Amino acid sequence: MAVAELSTPSFINTRLVHPSKLSFSTTHLHSHRRLAFPPLSRTHNARISCSLAPNQVQAPAPAQTEEPKNKPECYGVFCLTYDLKAEEETKSWKKLINVAVSGAAGMISNHLLFKLASGEVFGADQPVALKLLGSERSFEALEGVAMELEDSLFPLLREVIISIDPYEVFQDVDWALLIGAKPRGPGMERADLLDINGQIFAAQGKALNAVASRNVKVIVVGNPCNTNALICLKNAPNIPAKNFHALTRLDENRAKCQLALKAGVFYDKVSNVTIWGNHSTTQVPDFLNARIDGLPVKEVIKDHKWLEEEFTHKVQTRGGALIKKWGRSSAASTSVSIVDAIKSLVNPTPEGDWFSSGVYTTGNPYGIAEDIVFSMPCRSKGDGDYELVKDIKFDDYLLKRITKSEAELLAEKRCVGHLIGQGIAFCDLPEDTMLPGEM
Ligand SMILES: NC(=O)C1=CN([C@@H]2O[C@H](COP(=O)(O)OP(=O)(O)OC[C@H]3O[C@@H](n4cnc5c(N)ncnc54)[C@H](OP(=O)(O)O)[C@@H]3O)[C@@H](O)[C@H]2O)C=CC1
Ligand SMILES: O=C([O-])CC(=O)C(=O)O
């Protein structure tokens, strides 16, 4: 049996031994101990214990013994132990947080993971553990991702595990970024997509409910993301519904860019942009409440016909326009928008401004149907939570558009009744229901 000798708990002083070359010995992590690693297995992942407890962990998770039966599997250099308290420059760092990413071998993740590990998302004093969820099919690609993370030498990246089991990946997670989903293929009905992807998010909701931190924040990216988020939260009744988000931040960013272009200003001058509704072509980019340089958009952009027609359509179909150019859907800008969405929750929202997120509608002050996930304007104190913005103006144009997106989401919800404990599915989707990328 090959065994790695670790003479110190510090990360930088340990010897690197690749786990695939070693077999299991012990998981006790103290200085001056013998440590070896299990061979890579596709069903069981190893998470190495460390001297830091994850933040906010209250989940009634299966008891973690020192040698759990299904010991999760760490990856390569991340199997080496460390002790943040032992190094001068890391003593002041915060407690490790656990971040799960599904679809981790996909295009969006390929951009996102490196941002998460670099410190640009959670801060330069926030060590992270990345827990990557893939599938049997993509397991080798997932190993490739983990190898690239190893080679990037990120000081803040203290643990990486790869797995195809959501119950292992979601154990004690503080954030779950749910990206993995099946794209709609040629000839596939939207109802089929809702069902196929809905099954994934129902299973992941159940796993989060069982093993994640009770305070986990969940951002659903995989499409159709609003209804997937609804399915996920319905299958996780022990986690507050408020903690679930569907990503509409990319749409907000796209809207800001178009307004800036038309007004001839740089996009940092555009604020208070809400995307209402579904992440689909019925989404409503709100120019009534948006501001440019502090002024109402309609005072700066006098061409109101452009706002109602061209601007709205451009934002709704930006994903499709990009696919036509690239031959694949937005990945880099989506990952940037996921970073923006997280940062908006962990930093106080600038005075007077807000951000868009697809959130649970129950108790909303706008009269939008309850019990769906709808993009609305939010503000955060920076504690991971948010409040809906109250002082919002509506006019007939805005209300009519919002109603259309609301009707679409209610129809999507009827299609997934079987996945949310609401009886038999009945699918009567509007003809023109499309993802942004389907135009
Ligand atoms: N909300 C938003 O603003 C946006 C959302 N999206 C959506 O994000 C999702 C991911 O996009 P992207 O990263 O570009 O896509 P990729 O195809 O590159 O990656 C998708 C990942 O999803 C996983 N996946 C595919 N089918 C299944 C399945 N049946 N069960 C579980 N996992 C599955 C794949 O994992 P594996 O290889 O392991 O099977 C793959 O790694 C898509 O649904 C896309 O529509 C995209 C852009 C914007
Ligand atoms: O439709 C897609 O898969 C891509 C998408 O969501 C977008 O670009 O907004």
UniProtKB/TrEMBL annotation:
One of its GO terms (biological process) is malate metabolic process. Its EC number is 1.1.1.82. It is found in: Plastid, Chloroplast. GO terms for molecular function: L-malate dehydrogenase (NADP+) activity. It is an enzyme of class 1 (oxidoreductase). Gene3D superfamilies: Lactate dehydrogenase/glycoside hydrolase, family 4, C-terminal, NAD(P)-binding Rossmann-like Domain. PROSITE patterns: MDH (PS00068). It comes from the Eukaryota. Residues 248-416 form the Lactate/malate dehydrogenase C-terminal domain. Homodimer. This is Malate dehydrogenase [NADP], chloroplastic.
